[in-house]
Amino acid sequence: SDRSAFPDVGAQFPRSYMVLRDEVRMARAAGERPIMEWNEYREKLARPAGIADGGALSTATDLMHTLGELLHYADTEELSSTVFPNPSFLIDMMKYVIRHDHEEALRMDPAFVDGMTPAVFTEAKQNFIRRGILSHRLLRRMWAPLGLTDSQFERLVQLLEQFEIALSLPDDSVEPRLLVPSFLREPLPEGAWPAD
Q: Which residue from 24, 29, 97, 182 puts its CA 20 to 30 A from 15's CA?
C-alpha cells in the first residue's frame, strides 16, 4: 500500500516542525550558511520555530531530512554535529569534484595563496585526472568559490567519504589525499575499497 511505502504522507506533525521547515526554507532562500554546526542550527533555526527540547529537535530534524528539506547524518559520528540546510549546495560542491572537463577547467589561480607553485599544481592536477588521487590542497583550490572555513572543508571531505565519492588514502605523504575512483583509468584491485 502507499501508506507503507510513504508513512509520512498525510501524517499530522506539530506546528513547530512546520515552522522549522519554513525557517530552513527562509535561510536557504536568503543564501545563508549552507553548512551549520548543530548548536548554530538549534539557535538560529530551531529556537525561533519554538523547538527547544533536544529530543524534539532530533525528531524534527530527522523528519526534515526525510522530506529533503535539509540533510543531517545523525548516525554518522563525523557528521552528526553538522546540518546542511541547503541540499542543492552539496550538489554544487560535488560538481566541483566530479566533472568531465577538469583538463580544461582546472587552472592555476595565482590569486589563491597557498604556497602551491605552478609545477606542484600541474603535478597535483595530473595525479587527480590520471590516477584519481586528489590532494587536499588541490581540492581547496577547486572549492575556493564556496568560501569554506577549515571546519566546513573538513565536513565536506567527510561527506565525500559518506557518499563514497572519495576515500581517504593512508597518510603516507606530506599532505592528506583522497582517492576518487571515478577518475581511475583502470578498475580497483579486489579488496581496495573497505568492506562494510
A: 29
